[in-house]
């Protein structure tokens, strides 16, 4: 990736992480760590698709649970993946964090108010958030590639299309997880937004 893309990614990731840490309730650090671990493990599962591969992201789920705290949580998971498995790389940490955390945050802002509604509405919102977060993440990655080199335009379009099946899978997983948490641990969904469920 080009220098301006990498620098912009680092700057945005730095701002998002600072805001996320400021909003983090330190009594909820264990929950944030648990969510980071789930994100870490899920994104290690790669599925071959043509000449490339796709993987689970679960950034929609991370966003619904953590809101702004998604930034530092995703950054920590990406740092560990880079150190242990050489995924991504140190120079692209900022860009990768933005690609995954911005959709998580926007998903939280758009869909978390619906989690207060009846179960059907909440699960539909969770499904939509999972799909939306993957789509937006793949779109941001495509834009980062295009801003690096115009010749990446066709590859970027294929990349977005390849994430179509992942969007559906992520939507289903996000809806199932939110439905489960609403029943057995609604406090996990209230911690970062003080939300109450009927």
Can you describe this structure?
By secondary structure, the protein is mostly helical. 72% of the residues lie in helices and 4% in strands. It contains nine helices and two strands. Helix 2 (29-42) packs across helix 4 (70-85), helix 3 (59-66) packs across helix 5 and helix 6 (119-148) packs antiparallel against helix 7. The protein is globular.
How would you concisely characterize the structure shown here?
The protein has 198 residues and is mostly helical. 72% of the residues lie in helices and 4% in strands. It has a single domain, classed as Arp2/3 complex 21 kDa subunit ARPC3.
Mean pLDDT: 84
The main β sheet shows up as: 2 strands, antiparallel
Question: H/E order of the elements?
Answer: HHEEHHHHHHH
Quote the beta fraction.
Answer: under 5%
Structural class: mainly alpha
How large, in whole angstroms, is the Cα Rg? Answer: 16 Å
Spatial strand sequence of the major β-sheet? 1-2
Please tell me the total number of domains. Answer: 1
Helix % is over 70%
Under the CATH scheme, the architecture is: Orthogonal Bundle
The rounded distance between the terminal residues' Cα atoms is: 47 Å
Main attributes?
single chain; 198 residues; mainly alpha; Arp2/3 complex 21 kDa subunit ARPC3; 9 helices; 72% helix; 4% strand; disordered C terminus
Describe how the helices and strands are arranged:
Elements lengths: L2 H21 L5 H14 L3 E4 L2 E4 L3 H8 L3 H16 L7 H19 L7 H30 L4 H10 L1 H21 L2 H4 L8
Antiparallel strand pairs: 1-2
């Amino acid at each position: 990736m080009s220098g301006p893309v990498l620098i912009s990614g680092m700057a945005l990731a730095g701002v998002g992480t600072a805001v996320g840490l400021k909003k983090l309730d330190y009594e909820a650090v264990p929950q944030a760590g648990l969510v980071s671990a789930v994100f870490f493990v899920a994104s290690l599962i790669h599925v071959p698709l043509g000449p490339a591969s796709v993987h689970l992201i679960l950034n929609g789920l991370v966003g619904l649970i953590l809101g702004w705290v998604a930034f530092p949580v995703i950054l920590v998971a990406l740092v560990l993946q880079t150190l242990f498995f050489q995924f991504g790389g140190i120079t692209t940490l900022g860009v990768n964090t933005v690609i995954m955390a911005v959709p998580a945050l926007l998903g939280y802002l758009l869909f978390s108010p619906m989690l207060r509604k009846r179960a059907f509405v909440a699960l539909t919102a969770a499904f939509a958030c999972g799909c939306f977060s993957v789509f937006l993440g793949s779109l941001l990655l495509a834009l980062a590639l295009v801003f690096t080199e115009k010749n990446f335009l066709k590859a970027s379009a294929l990349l977005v299309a390849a994430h179509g099946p992942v969007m559906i899978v992520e939507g289903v997983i996000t809806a199932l997880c939110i439905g489960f948490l609403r029943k057995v641990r609604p406090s996990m969904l209230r911690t970062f937004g003080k939300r109450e469920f009927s």
